[in-house]
Specification:
With 379 residues, the chain is an alpha/beta fold. 37% of the residues lie in helices and 19% in strands. α5 runs parallel beside α6, α6 packs parallel to α7 and α7 packs parallel to α8. The longest helix has 21 residues.
C-alpha cells in the first residue's frame, strides 16, 4: 500500500453558542481535515481542531511542506512517517502548529492502517475494553448558579455520572457556592471535576483549591499557566487535591517534564495537539510506567478508541457544543448511553465528515480572518 495523493482543507466553523471560560472567549472552532489516497481502494481521513486560531497555518504547513514527503510512503509504517515529519519540522518548533499539522496526518495514517488490517481502530491499538465512561463537560463559567444546576440536571437525566465544570470566578466563595450547588444535584456518588483554564497564580491556586476541596473534586484541571512546572509540584504537595494537566502540552517530552518533577496526578493529552495517535500512545506509556492515569482531553471521536485500547485510560470527555457533531462537522451524533460510549466497530475510526456543510466555512489560504481575540486580557 502506498500513499498517492494528499488532500487537505481547513475550515472555520461558527459555534451555535459562544462560550467563555476564565481566560477564553470562543466563537468558532477551526478544523484541519487530511485525506490520504492510496494505490488501493482505501482512503484514510484525519483531522485536528483548534479553539479558533491556527488552522490556516497548520494547513499551509501540510500542503507546502509535509504532503510532498508523504507521497510514496506506506501508511502501515506509522513510526517511520511520524519521525520523518516531526524531525523535518523540529527546527521550526517541536509542538504547536507542528503537532497540529502532524496530528491530522497521523490520524489519517492510523485510519488507513486499521482499514488495511480490517479492524476497528480501538482493537488495532490494543482493545482493552469494549466501551468506556464518558463525562459531561461544558464551558459554563458564564452561567448563573441556577442555569448551571439546570444544565447538570439535564446531563444527569441523560445518564451521565461524572461532570466537569469551570471555575475561576472573581471571588473564591462564588466558585464554592456553584460547586456546592452541583454537588447537591449529583450527590456523594457523582464524580465532580473542576477546570480553571490556567487562571490562577500559585498563591491564588493554593487558597482556591483549599476552599474548593470541600466539594471533593476528582481533580482540578489546569490551575496554573501550563508552562510553569515547579509551581504545579508545589501546589500538588501543599493541597493534597489531585492536579490534572496536559491540554496545552504538545509532546511526550513536555509530559515527561511534569512526570519527573512530580507535578501531575492525571495526564490529559489531546490527540489533536500532541502529534496524533503515535505520540499519544507514548504519553500513555509514560503514565503507565509511573502509575499515572490518562484522561484524554476532548477529541471524543478519537479519544473513545484510545481509551478503549489503553488500560490506564480513565474515561473520555464530551464537551457539549464542541464535539464534531455539535459544531456541524459530522451528521452522526455520538451514541452515548447511560454515560458510556462504544467505539465504532467498522474498520478504521468510523468518523464521516459532513463535507457539504464544511465547504461553506472553508478557510481561503492567505485571506485575512475576521475575528475577535481568543484570550481575554488579564484583570
Amino acid at each position: 500500500m502506498k500513499i498517492t495523493r494528499v488532500i487537505c482543507h481547513a475550515y472555520r466553523m461558527p459555534l451555535k453558542t459562544h462560550f467563555a471560560s476564565s481566560r477564553v472567549k470562543m466563537t468558532h472552532r477551526e478544523l484541519v481535515v487530511v485525506e490520504l489516497q492510496t494505490d488501493g481502494s482505501e482512503t484514510g481521513v484525519g483531522w485536528s481542531t483548534t479553539a479558533g486560531v491556527g488552522a490556516a497555518a497548520a494547513h499551509a504547513l501540510i500542503i507546502g511542506y509535509l504532503a510532498p514527503m508523504l507521497v510514496g510512503s506506506d501508511p502501515r509504517n506509522n513510526e517511520r512517517i511520524w519521525q520523518q515529519l516531526w524531525m523535518e519540522c523540529h527546527a521550526a518548533g517541536p509542538g504547536g502548529i507542528t503537532t497540529l499539522a502532524l496530528s491530522a496526518i497521523d490520524i489519517a495514517v492510523w485510519d488507513l492502517k486499521a482499514k488495511a488490517a480490517g479492524e476497528p481502530l480501538y482493537r488495532m491499538l490494543g482493545g482493552a475494553r469494549q466501551s468506556v465512561d464518558v463525562y459531561a463537560s461544558a464551558i459554563n463559567l458564564g452561567l448563573s448558579t441556577a442555569e448551571l444546576v439546570t444544565q447538570v440536571r439535564h446531563q444527569l437525566a441523560d445518564g451521565y455520572k461524572a461532570f466537569k465544570i469551570k471555575v475561576g470566578r472573581p471571588g473564591p466563595y462564588d466558585d464554592l457556592e456553584r460547586c456546592r450547588a452541583v454537588r447537591d444535584v449529583i450527590g456523594d456518588e457523582g464524580i465532580l471535576m473542576l477546570d480553571a483554564n490556567q487562571k490562577w497564580s500559585l498563591p491564588e491556586a493554593l487558597q482556591r483549591i483549599r476552599i474548593l476541596s470541600d466539594v471533593g473534586p476528582l481533580f482540578v484541571e489546569e490551575p496554573l499557566l501550563s508552562d510553569t512546572i515547579d509551581p504545579h509540584a508545589k501546589l500538588r504537595a501543599a493541597t493534597g487535591v489531585p492536579i490534572a494537566v496536559g491540554e496545552q502540552l504538545c509532546n511526550r517530552f513536555e509530559f515527561w517534564n511534569y512526570c519527573r518533577e512530580g507535578a501531575a496526578d492525571i495526564l490529559q493529552p489531546d490527540v489533536w495537539k500532541v502529534g496524533g495517535i503515535t505520540e499519544f500512545l507514548k504519553i500513555a506509556a509514560l503514565g503507565a510506567a509511573i502509575g499515572i492515569p490518562i484522561s484524554p482531553h476532548g477529541a471524543m471521536e478519537i479519544s473513545v478508541h484510545l481509551a478503549a485500547a489503553l488500560p490506564n485510560a480513565m474515561h473520555v470527555e464530551n464537551i457539549f457544543g464542541l464535539n464534531l457533531f455539535d459544531f456541524g462537522a459530522t451528521r452522526q451524533a455520538p451514541d452515548i448511553v447511560k454515560g458510556r460510549i462504544t467505539p465504532s466497530d467498522t474498520p478504521g475510526h468510523g468518523v464521516v465528515f459532513a463535507r457539504e456543510a464544511l465547504t461553506e466555512h472553508l478557510l481561503v489560504p492567505g485571506e485575512e480572518i475576521e475575528r475577535s481575540p481568543l484570550y481575554l486580557p488579564l484583570a
